[in-house]
Write a structure and sequence with these properties.
This protein starts with 28 loop residues before the first strand and ends with a helix. It is mainly alpha-helical. The protein contains eleven helices and four strands, in the order E-E-H-H-H-E-E-H-H-H-H-H-H-H-H. The strands form two sheets. The chain has a two-stranded antiparallel ribbon. Strands 3-4 form a two-stranded antiparallel sheet. The chain is globular. The protein folds into two domains: 83 residues, Orthogonal Bundle (Arc Repressor Mutant, subunit A); 146 residues, Four Helix Bundle (Hemerythrin (Met), subunit A), CATH 1.20.120.
Length: 293
C-alpha cells in the first residue's frame, strides 16, 4: 500500500496531492467541562510533495515525523550550513499539516542543533559547531538540581499560562485540546514513558508558545530540556500520570475560558505537585540504595 498523507489526528487521507480527511473535533469535554471545539485539519496538500518529502504511516507523534521529513529534505537536497529552508507556510502546504505542528518540529530540530531559527528572517541549516554548543549547554543544565529545576519551571510556566489565557487564538486552543486528548489517551492505554513524556512536554511547550512572549520563545529549548529532565523523574511514579492528566485538564479549561488568574493558579499547583512527586521518588531511591547499617 503506498504511503499516504497523515492528518493532524493521525488518520491517513487520500493519495498524495489530495487533502486527508481529518475527523472534526466535536465540542469535547475536558475532565467534565464542556469545551467549545472546532474542526482542526491540516491544510490540503497542493500538488505532489516536493522532492525529498515522503509520508510515513506511524504511531510516532506527528511533530516528530515532520521533524524527520525536514531532516530528510535537508540531506536529500544537499543543503549546507547557512542555507535557508522553505518558510512555515510552504512547509505546511508541502506536508499537509498545521503551522503548530511545523513549529513544534522546527523547535525540536533547533534544540538538537540541526537548524537555526532567525526570527523575522527564516529557518537556516545550522553549522556543526552550533549543534555542539547546544549539546554543551544542555550538558551544563543537567548539573542543575531538581529543586532549582522546578523553581525555574514555576518562574517560566506560571506566567506563561496566564499570558496564553489572554493571547491564545481559538485555533490554538483547539490544537491544545487535541494534544490534551492525546495525552489522556496515552495515559489511559498505559503507553510507555517515552510516549508519555513526548505528549506531556508538547502540551507544556504549546502553552509557552501561545503566550506570545518573545522571551519565552527564546528560552524554548531550555524549557524543553527542563521538562524532559523533570518528567524522567516523575512519570514512573505510580499514579503520577493519571494525576498529571487531571491537573492538565484544570489548566486547559482555564485557558479555554480565557481566565488568566485560574490558569496561573492551576499551572502553579501542577508544577508543585510534580515537584513533590519527584523529590519523593529521589528520596525513596536514595533510601533503597543506602547500605544497610
Amino acid at each position: 500500500m503506498p504511503d499516504q498523507p497523515v492528518s493532524e489526528a493521525g488518520q491517513t487521507g487520500g493519495p498524495a496531492g489530495q487533502p486527508g480527511a481529518a475527523p472534526p473535533m466535536a465540542g469535547s469535554a475536558v475532565a467534565g467541562s464542556a469545551v467549545a471545539g472546532s474542526a482542526v485539519a491540516g491544510p490540503a496538500v497542493a500538488g505532489s510533495p516536493a522532492v525529498g518529502w515522503r509520508w510515513m504511516g506511524s504511531s510516532e507523534p506527528l511533530f516528530l515525523r515532520v521533524a524527520g521529513q525536514i531532516e530528510q529534505f535537508v540531506a536529500g537536497n544537499g543543503l549546507t550550513p547557512g542555507d535557508r529552508l522553505p518558510g512555515e507556510r510552504e512547509l505546511c502546504e508541502l506536508l499537509g499539516v498545521s503551522r503548530a505542528s511545523v513549529r513544534e518540529a522546527l523547535r525540536s530540530l533547533e534544540t538538537r542543533g540541526v537548524v537555526r531559527v532567525r526570527h523575522g528572517k527564516g529557518v537556516f541549516v545550522a553549522a556543526p559547531d552550533e549543534g555542539e554548543r547546544a549539546l554543551q549547554r544542555f550538558s551544563r543544565l543537567r548539573e542543575v538540581g531538581l529543586e532549582e529545576l522546578f523553581a525555574m519551571r514555576e518562574v517560566l510556566e506560571v506566567p506563561a499560562a496566564g499570558w496564553a489565557a489572554a493571547e491564545a487564538s481559538e485555533e490554538q486552543l483547539a490544537s491544545l485540546i487535541a494534544t490534551f486528548e492525546q495525552h489522556e489517551q496515552a495515559v489511559r492505554t498505559q503507553s510507555g514513558p517515552e510516549q508519555l513524556r513526548v505528549v506531556d512536554a508538547r502540551l507544556h511547550l504549546q502553552i509557552a508558545e501561545y503566550a506570545n512572549n518573545r522571551f519565552l520563545t527564546m528560552t524554548q529549548s531550555i524549557l524543553q530540556e527542563m521538562l524532559g529532565r523533570s518528567m524522567d523523574t516523575t512519570l514512573s511514579v505510580a499514579g503520577r500520570p493519571a494525576r498529571s492528566v487531571r491537573e492538565h485538564a484544570e489548566i486547559v479549561n482555564a485557558l479555554v475560558a480565557h481566565d488568566a488568574t485560574r490558569a496561573r493558579a492551576a499551572a502553579r499547583r501542577h508544577i508543585r505537585s510534580a515537584r513533590r512527586a519527584a523529590l519523593r521518588r529521589v528520596a525513596e531511591e536514595r533510601q533503597r540504595s543506602a547500605p544497610p547499617g
